[in-house]
Amino acid sequence: MNQQLAGYAPTPVAARMENHGRTMLKVAMASGQDLYARAGSMVAYEGFITYEPNPPAARQVAREWATGEGAPIMKCSGDGLLYLADYGADVVVINLQNDSISVNGTNLLAFDAHLQWGVERVKGLAKFAGQGLFNVEIAGTGWVALTSRGTPIVVDCGRGEDETYVDPDALVAWSPALKVKAKRSFKASALIGRGSGEAMQMAFSGQGIVVVQPSEDSTDRLRVRG
């Protein structure tokens, strides 16, 4: 039996964060290298690792997050190997090098605790009164892990002059330097198919990337927030 299961055994550690298959994240934990992760995402660990839900350093941001994407976090500390997952979603690992990324909170799995982060209202959507989109912006040098409902596509918006349009409910992340605006493409009376998801898109322009998942989020991301 051991030989039959050998192909699923952990591989040697090669980086702070890496994939174990498509849908699991492996994190090499070490003292002083704490991690923020989605609460409830731990599926296994080796070594001595402790967990602190709603850590004090993140409570204010978490309160702001609750008015936006509503995803609680936990602080992970210790030495060993930590495995995280989110209901079988694909895991995408990013190594920021003095860079930043804006992430849909429902797609954020884990990130190094030393990175700068905060909940930001997306600019460029103000003309749609009463509607808002909140993302988690992460900056610095370190590791970030995202999830995607299926294998994502990463669009390079700097390859041409045309704008890139994305359904907000399929949006995972983007470069904060990109310019963002909203666009209505159909009249409400002419909609077919899934409905209002195709009525409004987010238009990106400038230098940077956009990460798009092949499955729309189950929540309306451009909903009214009080």
TrEMBL record:
Cited Pfam families: AIM24
Q: Which InterPro entries match?
A: AIM24, AIM24_sf, Trp_RNA-bd_attenuator-like_dom
- Name of the featured protein: AIM24 family protein
Organism, as annotated: Streptomyces wedmorensis
